[in-house]
Amino acid sequence: MSRLPLFEVAQVVLGIGLLTLGAESLVRGAAGLAERLGLSPLVVGLTVVAFGTSMPERSDRYSMKWDGEWHITLEVFRDLGLAFAAVLVLIYVLVVGWFRSFLTPLVIMAPIPLTLVGILPAHALAGAFFTATSMIGFIAGAGIIVRNSIILVDFIELRLAQGIPLEIMQNRDHFRLWEAPWLTSEGRTVWVGAGTHDTGFGRDPAGQMTHSIDPDVDHERENIVDSLKQAGVVKDVRYLTPKDPLLKGLTTTGDQFHSDGRVAVIELK
Fold first, then answer.
1. Burial (0-12, 13-18, 19+ Cβ within 10 Å), 80
2. Confidence at residue 169, expressed as pLDDT on a 0 to 100 scale
3. Diameter over CA atoms, the chain
4. Does 9 reside within a domain?
5. Could you tell me how far CA 21 lies from the centroid of its own chain?
6. Residues 157, 173 within the same domain
7. Over 50: is that where the pLDDT of 1 sits?
């Protein structure tokens, strides 16, 4: 009985080890890159799968896959479609477990086909074909829609659990006060306030749910002044214009607002 060729055995063991480490490094690197770029890990995973299935199975010699362009295209679309369908089922199961409802995940995932509303007309205008890259873009858009929908539904359910009606969450007068670190000449406490009229929901750059506001912030300022007057607690009201008044700008949701720049100084009784 001949001895085992140790060199060849070492090559096999080393090759399997490098293949395992390389695959794990590829997955970890792709996931980390997706997180830094703000992409869905699903997109990167499907891209890696599509790339891997299109590569020759052996790397120790030159080879060519002679199947024809359409055959390769169909294979890629088949793999992407199957993976996307499997992920949709997994998302549905996870969302059912989170919200304890079989209907809520369907509502969250219902807008997914709307991503084609932007993709297909854009391809038609550009005269481009719907390729595997387009399919990956569709999957990425679906991931963004699902993420935003989950955040919105979760935000609404948390507020409803706090006893806040949906009508108030969408349309409300939002007034915030901060105690200033100084006193008046009479030793009275000074409060600094900011008021907006919330008109709906939006998302800040960090992806957190917040409110969209009425762009006319002066209207809410006057509403606060009138409400305090009607309550009979106002002694005097004066309007001051700062040296550099803020006349217009953008909120955290990217909405525009405008103002005459005046600040209402209200002295209470």
1. buried
2. 66
3. 108
4. no
5. 32
6. no
7. no
